[in-house]
C-alpha cells in the first residue's frame, strides 16, 4: 500500500510540473500582450522565467523577450549591459540588450534575437566534426567579447555553452558567437571577498569551490571558457561528476586537468592549459590569450577556408562602399564563421528533437509529460531490484550529464548544474563523513526514500524534455514570423479578415492588426481608403464588444494610430467614447489587478495622443471633459493615495503622466502642481531603476505654459 501511495505521489508531481509548465507559458504570453508585444513562440523556459520570440509593433522589429519575476530580477544584468553598450556599441560578440520594462510582478528584458541557438548544438553532437578553422574562429570571437566585458571591469561568472548564443544575420552568410545572460555578472573588486558563489558547476573555477572566503575575479571566466572549449572538442566535461562535494574533493586531489586524448594540437593545449590553470594569478587573461600563437602563428593564419576568405573579401568591398553593418571583424577572415559550417549542427539538432517528439507523442497526437504506466513501470523496476545500492537506484533516473544512450547525441541540460549559495566547506565535509560512516556500518537503505529523493531531478529532466519539444517552431509559428517580418498584407485582405474576425485565432488577429497599423502609418490617403472600406467602423464595433480585460495593447494601439492620423477631433472623441468610458469606470476601484493597471495605462496614452493633435501652447482637447466627468479628480486621488502600501509603482506613474498631459499649455492648479512636477522629474531621472519615459513628455507639455 505504501509503495502504491508513493507511486501515486510520484505521478502527481510529474503531472503538476506539466501543468505548471504550460500555465507559466500562457501567463507570460498574456504579460507580453498587455505590454505591447506579439508572442510568436517560446524560445526557452527555466527557473528564471521564459524567453519568447516576439514582435514589437512600436519599433516594427522581431526581438527576444525575456520575462523574469521581479523578485528574481537582478538589476546588475541590465546595468552590465547598459555600461557595455556605452563603452563599445559595435562589438558583435556580445548580445545586444535593447531595454527593460517593469511590468508589475514581472520584468521584461528585450534583447536581439539570436537565431541559431547556442554552442550546445555543437557540444551535444559528437558525430559531426567541427573543422579546426571554424573552432579557432569561434574561440577568437568569444575571447574578443570577453575582452570587452573584462575591459569594462566586469566578471561574467556564468560562461558556459548555453550562455554563448549563435546568430546569423539574414542574408549575411556568417555566424557570430554572442556572450549573453549577464544576470550573474558583477563588477570586479580586488579588495572585496564574499561568502557566496554563483555559476554552473562543471564550469566553476577551483578557487570558487575550495577557498573560503573567495574573491571572484575575471579569471573565473577564463577557466569557464576553457571548459567550454573542451566541451566543444570532446563533447563532454573533464569530469563526470554532479555534486559540489565531488568537484571540491576532485580539485583538492589534482593539480591540473589532464589533456583529453582526442586533443592532438600541442599549441591549442598549451593555450587551454593556461586557461585551466588552478592558480588564478597565473591563469592567462583574455587579452593575452588573443596574442597566443594558437591565433597568431603562421600555421593559424594559414588555416583559413576559401569560404572564410570569400566572406571577408565581400565585407571589405562593402566597407569601401561605406555600407552599414560591416565591422572590422567581418573583414578579417580569422574571425569569419560561414553559416553552412554551423547550419549542419542546427539541422541535426532539429532532426533529433523531431525524432524525440515523434516517440514522445500519444497516438492522438497529444504531448504527454510521460505516461502514467511508463512512470509506474520505471518506479516499480527500481523498487523490485532490492540488491541495488541507493546510488544505483538514483541512476535509474536520467540525471547524469554525459548520457551514453545515444552515441550520436549527448543530451544535456546545463541549468541542472546551476548553483549559488553560501560557501561552507566544513558542513560539506561533515556530510561526507556521515555518509561514509553509514556505508561502513552497512546500514539498510530505505529504497522508497532513495528513489523519491530523485523525483525532483527526474521531474526537472522531464520538464526540459517537454520544453525542448514545445520550443520546436511549428509551420504555423514560422508563418506568423514571416508575416510579421514582411507586413505586406494588402488592405483588401485585411478587410476580408475583419469580416470573419470572430473565427480567427488570437495570433491571426494580432498579425492582422500589426499589418493594419503598418498600413495606416503610411500617409493620410490610407486613412481615407480605410474609412471608405468601412474598416474603422468594423474595428470600433469589434472593440466596443470587448471587456477591459479583453483589450490587449495592440488592439488599443489601433485607436492611437487612428487618433494620430485623424483630422476631426470631435469625431475621434465620439468614436472612442464607449471604449474610454469602460476605462474610466475602472478608476473608481483602484487595485493592483492587471485590468486596472491596463486601464489607467490606456487612459494616459489616450490623453497624450490627443495632446499631440494640437499645436504647442494649445490646451489638451480632453481637459474640460475630464474635469467635468470627474476623471481628473480620480487620477489625482490615485496619484496621492498612500493607503495601499503594496500599490504597483506603475499606477502612480501612469496617473501622474495622465494629469500632466491634461494640463498641457495651461497652468496646473497649485494644490497638486508642485507635488506632481517633483514626482515626474524623479520618474524621468535615468538613474531610476525603472524610469517612466512618458514622464518627460508630460513635463514638456506642462512646460508649454510655465517654466519647470
TrEMBL record:
<feature type="domain" description="Protein kinase">
    <location>
        <begin position="37"/>
        <end position="295"/>
    </location>
</feature>
<dbReference type="Pfam" id="PF00069">
    <property type="entry name" value="Pkinase"/>
</dbReference>
<keyword id="KW-0547">Nucleotide-binding</keyword>
<dbReference type="InterPro" id="IPR045269">
    <property type="entry name" value="Atg1-like"/>
</dbReference>
<dbReference type="InterPro" id="IPR008271">
    <property type="entry name" value="Ser/Thr_kinase_AS"/>
</dbReference>
<dbReference type="GO" id="GO:0005776">
    <property type="term" value="C:autophagosome"/>
</dbReference>
<dbReference type="InterPro" id="IPR016024">
    <property type="entry name" value="ARM-type_fold"/>
</dbReference>
<keyword id="KW-0418">Kinase</keyword>
<dbReference type="GO" id="GO:0004674">
    <property type="term" value="F:protein serine/threonine kinase activity"/>
</dbReference>
<keyword id="KW-0067">ATP-binding</keyword>
<dbReference type="GO" id="GO:0000045">
    <property type="term" value="P:autophagosome assembly"/>
</dbReference>
<dbReference type="GO" id="GO:0016020">
    <property type="term" value="C:membrane"/>
</dbReference>
<dbReference type="GO" id="GO:0010506">
    <property type="term" value="P:regulation of autophagy"/>
</dbReference>
<dbReference type="GO" id="GO:0000407">
    <property type="term" value="C:phagophore assembly site"/>
</dbReference>
<protein>
    <submittedName>
        <fullName>Putative Serine/threonine-protein kinase SAPK1</fullName>
    </submittedName>
</protein>
<dbReference type="InterPro" id="IPR000719">
    <property type="entry name" value="Prot_kinase_dom"/>
</dbReference>
<keyword id="KW-0808">Transferase</keyword>
<dbReference type="GO" id="GO:0005524">
    <property type="term" value="F:ATP binding"/>
</dbReference>
<dbReference type="InterPro" id="IPR011009">
    <property type="entry name" value="Kinase-like_dom_sf"/>
</dbReference>
<dbReference type="GO" id="GO:0005829">
    <property type="term" value="C:cytosol"/>
</dbReference>
Amino acid at each position: 500500500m505504501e509503495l502504491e501511495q508513493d507511486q501515486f505521489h510520484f505521478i502527481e508531481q510529474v503531472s503538476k510540473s506539466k501543468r505548471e509548465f504550460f500555465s507559466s507559458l500562457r501567463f507570460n504570453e498574456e504579460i507580453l500582450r498587455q505590454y505591447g508585444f506579439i508572442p510568436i513562440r517560446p524560445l526557452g523556459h527555466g527557473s528564471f522565467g521564459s524567453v519568447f520570440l516576439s514582435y514589437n509593433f512600436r519599433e516594427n522589429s522581431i526581438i527576444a523577450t525575456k520575462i523574469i519575476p521581479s523578485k528574481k530580477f537582478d538589476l546588475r544584468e541590465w546595468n552590465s549591459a547598459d555600461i557595455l553598450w556605452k563603452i563599445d556599441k559595435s562589438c558583435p560578440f556580445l548580445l545586444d540588450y535593447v531595454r527593460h520594462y517593469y511590468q508589475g510582478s514581472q520584468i521584461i528584458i528585450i534583447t536581439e534575437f539570436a537565431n541559431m541557438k547556442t554552442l550546445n548544438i555543437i557540444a551535444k553532437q559528437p558525430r559531426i566534426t567541427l573543422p579546426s578553422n571554424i573552432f579557432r574562429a569561434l574561440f577568437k570571437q568569444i575571447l574578443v567579447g570577453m575582452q570587452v566585458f573584462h575591459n569594462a571591469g566586469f566578471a561574467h561568472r556564468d560562461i558556459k555553452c548555453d550562455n554563448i548564443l549563435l546568430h546569423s544575420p539574414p542574408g549575411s552568410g556568417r555566424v557570430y558567437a554572442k556572450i549573453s545572460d549577464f544576470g550573474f555578472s558583477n563588477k570586479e573588486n580586488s579588495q572585496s571577498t564574499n561568502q557566496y558563489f554563483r555559476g554552473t558547476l562543471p564550469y566553476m573555477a577551483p578557487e570558487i569551490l575550495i577557498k573560503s572566503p573567495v574573491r571572484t575575479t575575471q579569471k573565473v571566466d577564463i577557466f569557464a571558457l576553457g571548459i567550454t572549449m573542451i566541451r566543444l572538442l570532446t563533447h563532454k566535461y573533464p569530469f563526470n561528476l554532479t555534486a559540489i562535494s565531488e568537484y571540491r574533493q576532485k580539485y583538492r586531489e589534482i593539480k591540473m586537468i589532464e589533456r583529453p586524448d582526442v586533443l592532438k594540437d600541442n599549441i591549442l593545449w598549451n593555450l587551454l592549459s593556461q586557461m585551466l590553470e588552478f592558480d588564478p594569478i597565473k591563469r592567462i587573461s583574455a587579452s593575452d590569450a588573443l596574442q597566443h600563437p594558437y591565433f597568431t602563428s603562421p600555421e593559424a593564419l594559414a588555416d583559413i577556408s576559401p569560404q572564410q576568405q570569400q566572406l571577408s573579401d565581400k565585407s571589405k568591398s562593402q566597407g569601401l562602399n561605406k555600407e552599414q553593418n560591416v565591422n572590422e571583424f567581418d573583414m578579417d577572415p580569422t574571425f569569419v564563421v560561414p553559416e553552412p559550417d554551423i547550419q549542419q549542427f542546427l539541422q541535426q539538432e532539429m532532426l533529433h528533437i523531431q525524432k524525440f517528439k515523434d516517440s514522445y507523442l500519444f497516438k492522438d497526437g497529444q504531448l504527454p509529460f510521460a505516461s502514467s504506466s511508463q512512470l509506474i513501470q520505471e518506479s516499480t523496476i527500481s523498487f523490485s531490484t532490492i540488491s541495488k545500492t541507493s546510488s544505483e537506484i538514483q541512476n535509474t533516473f536520467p540525471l547524469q550529464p554525459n548520457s551514453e544512450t545515444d552515441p550520436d547525441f549527448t543530451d544535456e541540460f546545463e541549468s541542472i548544474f546551476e548553483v549559488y549559495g553560501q560557501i561552507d566547506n566544513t558542513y560539506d565535509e561533515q556530510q561526507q563523513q556521515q555518509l561514509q560512516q553509514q556505508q561502513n556500518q552497512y546500514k539498510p537503505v530505505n529504497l522508497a526514500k532513495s528513489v523519491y529523493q530523485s523525483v525532483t531531478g527526474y521531474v526537472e529532466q522531464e520538464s526540459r524534455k517537454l520544453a525542448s519539444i514545445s520550443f520546436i517552431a511549428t509551420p504555423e509559428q514560422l508563418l506568423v514570423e514571416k508575416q510579421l517580418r514582411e507586413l505586406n498584407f494588402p488592405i483588401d485582405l485585411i478587410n476580408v479578415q475583419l469580416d470573419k474576425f470572430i473565427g480567427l485565432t488570437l495570433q491571426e488577429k494580432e498579425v492582422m492588426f500589426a499589418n493594419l497599423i503598418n498600413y495606416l502609418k503610411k500617409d493620410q490617403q490610407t486613412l481615407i481608403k480605410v474609412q471608405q472600406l468601412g474598416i474603422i467602423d468594423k474595428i470600433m464595433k469589434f472593440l466596443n464588444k470587448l471587456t477591459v480585460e479583453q483589450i490587449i495593447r495592440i488592439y488599443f494601439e489601433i485607436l492611437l494610430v487612428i487618433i494620430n492620423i485623424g483630422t476631426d477631433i470631435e469625431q475621434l472623441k465620439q468614436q472612442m467614447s464607449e471604449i474610454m468610458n469602460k476605462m474610466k469606470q475602472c478608476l473608481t476601484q483602484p487595485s493592483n489587478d492587471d485590468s486596472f493597471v491596463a486601464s489607467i495605462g490606456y487612459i494616459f496614452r489616450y490623453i497624450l495622443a490627443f495632446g499631440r493633435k494640437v499645436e504647442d501652447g494649445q490646451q489638451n482637447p480632453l481637459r474640460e471633459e475630464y474635469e467635468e466627468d470627474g476623471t481628473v479628480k480620480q487620477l489625482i486621488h490615485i496619484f496621492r493615495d498612500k493607503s495601499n502600501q503594496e500599490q504597483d509603482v506603475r499606477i502612480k506613474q501612469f496617473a501622474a503622466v495622465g494629469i500632466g498631459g491634461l494640463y498641457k499649455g495651461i497652468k496646473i492648479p497649485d494644490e497638486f502642481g508642485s507635488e506632481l512636477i517633483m514626482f515626474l522629474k524623479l520618474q524621468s531621472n535615468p538613474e531610476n531603476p525603472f524610469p517612466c519615459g512618458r514622464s518627460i513628455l508630460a513635463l514638456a507639455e506642462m512646460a508649454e505654459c510655465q517654466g519647470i
